[in-house]
Amino acid sequence: MKKVKFVFAVHNHQPIGNFKWVFQKGYDISYKPFIDIMLKHKNIKWNMHCSGMLWDFFVKEHPEYITIVKKLIKNGNLEIISGGYYEPMLSVIPKVDRIGQIKQLSDFIKNKLRYNSSGAWVAERVWEPSLAKDLSKSGIKYTVLDDVHFTSVGVDVNNLNGYFVSEDQGYKINVFPISQKLRYFIPFQDVSVTIEYFKKLASEDKEQVVVLADDGEKFGMWPGTFKHVYENGWLDKFLTALEENSDIVETVTFNEVLKTVKPLGRIYLPTNSYFEMSEWTLPSSIQNDFDSFMKQNENNERIKPFIKGSFWRGFLAKYEESNNMHKKMLRISDKMQKSISGKSQQNNSAIQFLYAGQCNCAYWHGVFGGLYLPHLRNAIYENLLKAENIYNNIHNQKPIWHKTDFDCDGSDEVLYESKSQNIYVSPKKGGSIFEFDILKNNYNFSNVLTRRYEGYHKKLKDAIMNNNISDSQELTSIHTDAVKVKEIGLENHLYYDWYQKTSLLDHFFHNDTTYDEVYCVKFREQGDFVLGEYNTRINKNNLELYRDGKVWFNDLHLPVKVKKIITPLKNEGYNVEYSITNLSDIKQNFTFGTEQVFAFSEYDEAKDNIKIENIKKWYRTDNNLKTEIGIESSKECNYWIVPIYTVSMSENGYERTYQGTTVINVYKFCLEPKKIFKFKLKIVVKKI
Question: Are 523 and 509 in contact (CB under 8 A)?
Fold first, then answer.
């Protein structure tokens, strides 16, 4: 019998933009009680990674936590792991930012904690082979990844009893596999289950290094875990059991393993993450098929290691909003690197805002809210726009329209950028505005989320139909099929948009369309303009968009031309001049609507769900942003205003989230052949 070396590591993180009370709650029910119990067990060695935002919180709000950490380090009980300061997805940010983020966290650990960290936490264990070089160049000796990274290249899970060496262009990195079995055992199973597993490993009488590295929040913040881990004493019992079974298992740090155990060999790992991530990145339409296939083969240990879905970058194809944020981040990073040099306070601030805008959580969606949480997306844009403001002030940014393939889809977008606002237009997607930044607010008013079908919606519908809804406070792993809801009636909000929610989308509604059909997407679209591509022409300060399309009129598909000219206002807002031409030889009655969306900070029942007839002007105040948005029409029209609510999964259950408000100016008119209907819109933004 040979002792098992058990590497116990926790990763603690709260995203940029999360509410201060969440940080404090995390401290009260997870981070502080966890470290207090670890401090009591003087024979236990462990490892910890905290993202920079949490370290900042501890330094400012709870210096006593820093004191405990230093004590544990001094006593030899605790090893601190570095990584990207703002928890970026390292593989999808520029290399210069990868190295900069790692250096910043390593410097913090060295200067504040008096510890030289040689390990790096890779956010969500999203691995791409090029990371090996950049980690190595950053002074990192090791990282930790999931066992599925290793089994997917043919390593037997029973042979993952140590660590491996990988490299890129000769730059080496040691890589430890995380045991999925322990991830599911701890802390959900009885302590005896894990101890029996260690006894089994020890009985094999060979060198065994086994790693559990997982979210620290599962010890207190995940549903039901505070009672289980602390009130019922699971963590204290677990550590006591480790101490009582020291003849078969010893706790060690990563660096102790590197010093005493030789690597198992050289390995080259593919793009990968933990298994669940590979399922979440798949298109929603096939997730349930993938899930069924996995269940059919869950006991087939021969082929199971080679089954995987997509990889993290799939989110950039799955969600346009994620891709737009990502490409905005790349654009700001490029501006920083090309134009800001030196170590002035202003330049350093710009880099910090850029780094904060790279925090990974808002860019994707799995079990946690992520992309579906407006406050997380808003925080990304807020920080990126703060960096852009600094750039604009340094370079005295002049107002300009220019064409570039912003979203990297092979078609040019047309971007207006100035010191006061950005207006990004996609000719390919209905000639619509997909980003509308008010720079003095550091706020993107187009930051809404389209309502999409998600694979887990089927589970929700089935559970509601079968009256099989579970208590959202009961103890379960987040990686289960249990259906929890945070409110009754979510099925009444499961509607899906067939187009991306952007502004200045041009609808030709069936003439019988009513306001009540808008929220539930039951209206009949007669034109091909919403998804159609517009031609463009930049004319000094104006952007002209025009399309010769078709509109169904009874059984005829008749030609119609839409032209709209966007003119940015001097400060914030824009004018739009519309002209709609009946190109056919038939007199036609039209119900035309131009749709706009606004990402208000919270829902206003009186303003965001209403039909107003025969008016010209509409205004909506956002008290949190101290801003008023107005739409002024040159002609009387109807205003159809509905909220955008999504239904998504979170760790606490399915939830409904307000994403913004849709405003449609609806005009009813009749056009003789070759005649033109014209009107103007003015979108005004005022500080209040």
Answer: yes
Q: Which residue, 292, 325, 535, 571, is CA-closest to 430?
A: 535
Marked catalytic residue, from 79, 97, 124, 320: 124
**pTM over cut 0.90:** yes
Residue 529, token pair as written in the block: 């303009």
Read off the DSSP letter of residue 329: H
Query: Phi and psi (nearest 5°) for 463?
Result: -65, -40
Residue type, 478: I
Query: Right CATH number for 456-687 from 3.40.50.300, 2.70.98.10, 3.20.20.190, 2.40.50.180?
Result: 2.70.98.10
- Mapping DSSP onto H, E and C, the string for 350-386 reads HHHHHHHCCEHHHHCCCCCCHHHCHHHHHHHHHHHHH
Res 471: pLDDT:
58
- For Cα atoms 291, 297, 301, give the angle at the middle one, nearest 5 degrees: 130
Query: Between 345-356 and 95-113, two packed helices, what is the crossing angle to 10 degrees?
Result: 100
d(CA 458, CA 470): 16
Identify the pLDDT of residue 478.
54
> Which residue in the list 168, 215, 604, 628 is annotated as catalytic?
215
Q: How far apart are CA 137 and CA 125, in angstroms?
A: 19
- Chain centroid offset of residue 130 CA: 22
For the question of residue 462 being annotated catalytic, the response is no
Residue type (1 letter), 238: F
Query: Which of helix, strand or coil describes residue 48?
Result: strand
Phi and psi angles of residue 60, each rounded to the nearest 5 degrees, phi first: -80, -45
Q: Is 505 exposed, middle or buried (0-12, 13-18, 19+ CB in 10 A)?
A: buried
Residue 277, both tokens: 């991530």
The residues of the chain that CATH labels 3.20.110.20 are 4-279
Write out the residue limits of the CATH 2.70.98.10 domain(s) in the chain.
456-687
Q: If we measure between CA atoms, which residue out of 580, 541, 577 comes closest to residue 414?
A: 541
Between the alpha carbon of residue 30 and those of residues 25, 35, 230, 240, 471, the distances in Å are 8, 9, 9, 19, 21
| Number of other CB atoms surrounding residue 186 within 10 Å | 21
Cα–Cα dist 434/501, whole Å: 8
Topology (CATH) of 4-279:
7-stranded beta/alpha barrel (3.20.110)
Q: Which regions of the chain are under pLDDT 50?
A: none
Nearest partner of 175 among 146, 201, 151, 206, judged by Cα: 146
The two three-digit tokens of residue 225, written as one number:
């875990």
Helix (H, G, I), strand (E, B) or coil at 469: coil
Between CA 299 and CA 422 the distance in angstroms is 53
Give the containing element (helix H, strand E) for 258: helix 254-260
Asked if 124 is an active-site residue, the reply is yes
pLDDT digits (tens, 9 = 90+) for 598-643: 999 999 999 999 999 999 999 999 999 999 999 999 999 999 999 9
Alpha helices, DSSP H only, in 9-94? 20-26, 32-40, 52-61, 63-74
- Contact between 644 and 451 under an 8 Å Cβ cutoff? The reply is yes
Query: H-helix or E-strand containing 61?
Result: helix 52-61
CB-side neighbour CA atoms (13 Å) of 192: 0
Element (H, E) at 349: helix 345-356
pLDDT of residue 341: 64
- Virtual CA dihedral for 148, 149, 155, 159, nearest 10 degrees? -70
Cα Rg of the chain, angstroms:
28
Is 85 within 8 Å of 355 (Cβ atoms)? yes
Residue type for 424, please? Y
Q: Return d(Cα 144, Cα 213) in angstroms, integer.
A: 8
Evaluate whether 532 touches 430 at the Cβ level (below 8 Å). Answer: yes
